[in-house]
TrEMBL record:
This is Glutathione synthetase. It comes from Pueribacillus theae. The lineage of its organism: Bacteria, Bacillati, Bacillota, Bacilli, Bacillales. InterPro entries: YheC/D. It comes from the Bacteria. Pfam families: ATPgrasp_YheCD (PF14398).
Length: 457
């Protein structure tokens, strides 16, 4: 995919698309000059004409209206047979809209505005929409664009690609939202990426059969019995019990078996406070902290003795994204040092963020370990493509290094949180992680248009 060029409305012509002379010559070499143009699912007949004024695209005003192009911006042009496709047009699907024009997505409005602003450097058109904004009969969506004027509602045709930003698992399960995805994928063949939230057990079950990454996975048991928990504690001395569909560290319990006093200890967080409780018997701990049958929704995971800094365990958040070539790359990495008596390294539990440069400056043993982490994250990302259905464009990994230097993956998130980016020295990485999903959207759009067999297979 080449560099995007400005798309400008031309008031002096009709049914024409003016392209740079160099681009016209490339079309000519292919033997056929297209006679149609499209934007999303809208198409129109046109004449392709070369111009030598500057590196930009000029589109007749009447075609501008026919195609429902919202405003002038830099775009890519994709050639297929007798058609040129302007865009790409990428929709961000979400829920949780409000009636406030300046905060149409409530507290998430600022985050989405930042996402759409970063997309401008990629080239193309990007808008946000929900199920209530789709007109299936006309094939149009009354979505939200973010411009210099702020939030603007505009009607656009169905997009080339959809980026899934459903906010939570509860919304994900709503039939009306599931129906939108089903219809766009099956009836319109629109690629839909980063769909759904990962389930811890499902991820473990699929990756443990992959020889390239199985060594990174702690032993994990779904719906553990008290006997299975006891066995894991005898084997590893400490384990984590957490919801299979959990996120943000909510509901995580760290259970420790101490041979010194023959007691069981459990660290957990409740009502924004960290707790440490002691029990004589494991069944007393389970009965006290887990409601009847609650273990049926949990996983028990091998405890790992992590490297420490200032006597506190640390792990790593690693963001992996696909770029405009559809290749995985590490877009951000940071260490999280656990808070005092905290069960996790989540920021809300008192953890502190450090950049890898800060770690390396304090301890020269970290640079080679960071390289191992990055290699493992890329290997895991590629394994997701092999073992997990759908189009995955971004993954947030929670990973650790044990006292022996071994790499472990604790969790993978399809919609990773962004708490590490509160660190002032991660501003560049923060921008890159917002930009790359749209680069991948451009890649998917081009692939879907030029090699539809790859998308449908």
């Amino acid at each position: 995919m080449g560099t995007p060029l400005p798309l400008v409305k031309d008031e002096s012509s009709k049914n024409c698309f003016f392209v740079p002379l160099s681009y016209f010559e490339k079309l000519n070499k292919k033997g056929t000059i297209p006679n149609e143009i499209s934007f999303g699912t809208n198409t129109a007949a046109c004449e392709i004409i070369p111009h030598s004024h500057s590196e930009k695209w000029l589109l007749s005003a009447n075609l501008w209206e026919t195609l429902s192009i919202p405003f002038e911006t830099s775009v890519h042009v994709i050639h297929t047979d007798n058609m040129l496709h302007i865009g790409p047009l990428i929709g961000i699907f979400t829920a949780g809209f409000t009636s406030q024009p300046h905060r149409p997505l409530g507290a998430r409005s600022f985050l989405f505005a930042k996402y759409l602003t970063s997309a401008q450097s990629v080239g193309g058109y990007y808008f946000i929409f929900g199920s209530h904004q789709i007109n299936w009969e006309s094939g149009m969506i009354h979505g939200l664009y973010y411009t210099k004027k702020g939030w603007e509602k505009r009607s656009s045709p169905f997009p080339h690609v959809v980026y899934d930003r459903i906010p939570n698992r509860r919304a994900e399960k709503l039939p009306i939202l599931q129906d939108v995805k089903k219809r766009m994928e099956n009836d319109y063949f629109i690629p839909w990426f980063n769909s759904g939230f990962f389930n811890k057990w499902s991820i473990y079950e699929k990756l443990q059969t992959n020889d390239a990454v199985s060594s990174y996975l702690p032993e994990t048991i779904l719906n553990p019995s008290i006997q299975e928990i006891e066995h894991l504690l005898d084997k590893y001395q400490h384990i984590y019990v957490k919801p299979a569909d959990g996120s943000l560290g909510i509901g995580v319990h760290h259970i420790i078996k101490r041979s010194a006093d023959n007691h069981y200890y459990c660290r957990f967080r409740k009502d924004e406070k960290n707790f440490l409780q002691r029990y004589k018997k494991l069944n007393e701990l389970i009965e006290s902290l887990f409601n009847e049958n609650r273990l049926e929704t949990m996983v028990a995971q091998q405890g790992i003795t992590l490297l420490k800094m200032n006597k506190r365990p640390l792990d790593f958040r690693i963001h992996a994204n696909k770029d405009i070539d559809g290749k995985w790359r590490i877009s951000a990495i940071a260490a999280k040092i656990s808070g005092r008596n905290s069960v996790t390294t989540h920021i809300a539990s008192g953890a502190k963020v450090k950049t890898v440069h800060e770690l390396s400056a304090e301890n020269e043993s970290f640079p080679p370990l960071i390289k191992k982490l990055q290699h493992a994250a890329l290997t895991l990302s590629k394994a997701f493509d092999e073992n997990i259905d759908g189009y995955n464009g971004e993954i947030g990994f929670d990973m650790g290094i044990d006292v022996n230097g071994k790499i472990w993956m604790f969790e993978a998130n399809s919609k990773p949180g962004r708490s590490i980016f509160t660190h002032p020295r991660l501003k560049e990485e923060e921008f890159v992680t917002r930009k790359l999903p749209f680069e991948y959207g451009v890649f998917l759009a081009e692939t879907a248009l030029t090699k539809p067999g790859l998308i449908l297979s």
